[in-house]
Sequence to fold (547 residues):
Amino acid sequence: MLAAEGNGASVLTETLAAAGVRTVFSLSGNQIMPVYDACIDSGIRIVHVRHEAAAVAMADAHAQLTGEIGVALVTAAPGFANALSPLYSARAAESPVLLLSGDSPVEQDGNGAFQELQQNAVAAPLVKASLRPLKARDLAPMTAQAIRLSRSGRKGPVHMALPFDALNARDAQAFDGDALAFEPVPISMSDEDVRKIGELLDGAERPLVLLGPQFNESREMKRVKSLADALNAPAIAMESPRGLRDPSLGAFAEVVAEADLIILLGKTVDFTLGFLKQGVIAADADIVVIDPEHEAIDRARTLCGSRVRCSVRADVASAVDGLSSLSRAHKSPEWREVVAEAIAFRQRPQVETSDLHPIAVCDAVAAVLREADEPILICDGGEFGQWAQAFCNAPVRVINGPSGAIGNGLSYAIAAKLARPKATVIAMMGDGTAGFHLAEFETAAREDAAIIAVVGNDSCWNAEHQIQLRDFGPERLIGCTLSSRVRYDQAVEGLGCQGIYVERPKALSGALHEAVNGARPALVNVIMAGAPAPVFSRTDNAAPSAH
Fold:
């Protein structure tokens, strides 16, 4: 049992420490100062950011890269509201995140207290649960409950508001559990369920396993490979807002329609799968749904009807382990090879410009990643982000995820470097994205997080620009241009970091190596031509031109 010395804030931080939390991402504020003080005695590091949204984004990336709970701590009302957007991204990315927010005192509820806000009601649609301990004695058990909820079933963020009077009360009860109090609650798949799915697999020639983001290669590479080997079937994690047209999946969309059995293993039926309408998949393809949430199973049955041959409520980890006990080694590997070839397929554009093209930037970054002993690739959203996802790779990668949000890449990169200090962390982002959290370069400098941000600068919100060109025509362009005079490299110099400006192709490789070999966080501002994101198709006879 942990001794409670002092107030509720001390019990809170001791409980976090018992759960293995060593780092909290935070922006300070009145209501959470007791927690800051308590972190000193509990040995918890506070990474102090410049905007609350950055704190949640860092917690998200920390969770993805370490497998631990990612914790963000912000102040009440306006601070809490600033933190909401990346909660949506964390939920879509299936990241176990705990957002702690300061709150006005319980004893002043309804009286117009300073920054009083019904935070639980506001947060509820964005999280798995939103909690509020009304008494100091509730802090320890509710913190353990929040962490357990975040890690159970489909992983995701949980919010807990921290009333100021509960943090300061002296009647808090110490956490008296053990590590099991924070462990996820398993939803196991029965042997009978495994047998039924095994029969469907035995009758299939071209089975395909689709997983959600929490089982991508960066987070669960070994388990996913073991599953694919056991089933002798492709196992693909879907984690991009571009879904089956995710540039990092090449021409994958073309082979999905050839599958005769699709196992949705924690992957919900949604827009990323084209709602599994006929044409996206074969009309006679069977579907198996394995999911920890009743709602996901019900949605699949509503959208796919009788094509759903089997549905099982189970958590993904249990299902992966259960299905890995099957063996289809007798089946030909030809189908796996077909899918792998489709995913690896890339059309390189015919570049018809003397300016730097996104693919040239990607080629240079890819070379640096290959040279690194421990490379980590961060890809933000937008058109440049899609080029990066298509033509750059690393064993560990964090992207903007199914939410489609942009702007978190820099925060992801800082969290990655803090989690793995020896890694070479390269974040690729457009100039629109770079403007969201540029001030976090000061955080990176202060925390000695020597990341490298490569900004593909086409002076444009290019994703929206491409929509305007496609849907409305070149004479209807409005509101998507950015200034060509902006020097992001000079801005980060003022924040204590290294800035490098590149406008000639021959200078790019040297600039990247200068950034990698430097001791400070760096931004490489690459002036390049804008280009629409790549879409790969093996049915096209020629690669698209790029102007």
Q: What stands out?
A: The domain at 191-344 is CATH 3.40.50.1220 (Rossmann fold).
